[in-house]
Amino acid sequence: MTEPACEFPAYNSTDDEIKEILTNYKTIAIVGISNKPDRDSFRVASFLKEKGYKIIPVNPNYDTVLGEKCYPSLSSIPFPIDIVDVFRKPDALPPIADEAIKIGAKVVWMQIGVVNNQAAEKLIKNKIKVVMNKCMMIEYNTQFPEDFPQITDEFCEAFEE
Q1: Tell me: the pLDDT tens digits for 92-146?
Q2: In this structure, what DSSP letter does residue 31 have?
Q3: What mean pLDDT is reported for the chain?
Q4: What is the residue-wise DSSP string for 33-100?
Q5: SS3 133
Q6: Bridge pairing between strands 64-65 and 68-69
Q7: Which CATH code is given to the segment(s) 15-160?
Q8: Closest CA to 83 of 31, 28, 18, 22
Q9: Cβ atoms of 140 and 48 closer than 8 Å
């Protein structure tokens, strides 16, 4: 029997849980961040920074991203992290989950397409909240629509000229 190409989340966070996470936790380690502006990890981190979150880039290949010191691993960050936002393939999650437990993270957030039920189960057993297969930027705009720019007639007219 072959392994499935992808797995579905065994646990799905509720809207209330997501809103509570986005409201109460402000320091976010972005694991697997790229310094390329066209990459999702860069765009999401940039958006979250703009919204007032403290962004901590984590990627051993860079010194800085978005003007912030980039750390090679979660365990090399010398201060507490609330959320670990993961932009890595699902099979990279077990060691990331272990590090998140070790550093006392409150939440591990796996972006769209990132699901690892085994890692999620271990995190939950260690009292760490888990969000899987969801984008923080999309969820922020869903939970806080008043922060999302409204499309007005003037906005549309600007593109018609």
Answers
A1: 999 999 999 999 999 999 999 999 999 999 999 999 999 999 999 999 999 998 7
A2: E
A3: 91
A4: --S-TTSHHHHHHHHHHHTTPEEEEE-TT-SEETTEEPBSSGGG-SS--SEEEE-S-GGGHHHHHHHH
A5: coil
A6: antiparallel
A7: 3.40.50.720
A8: 28
A9: yes
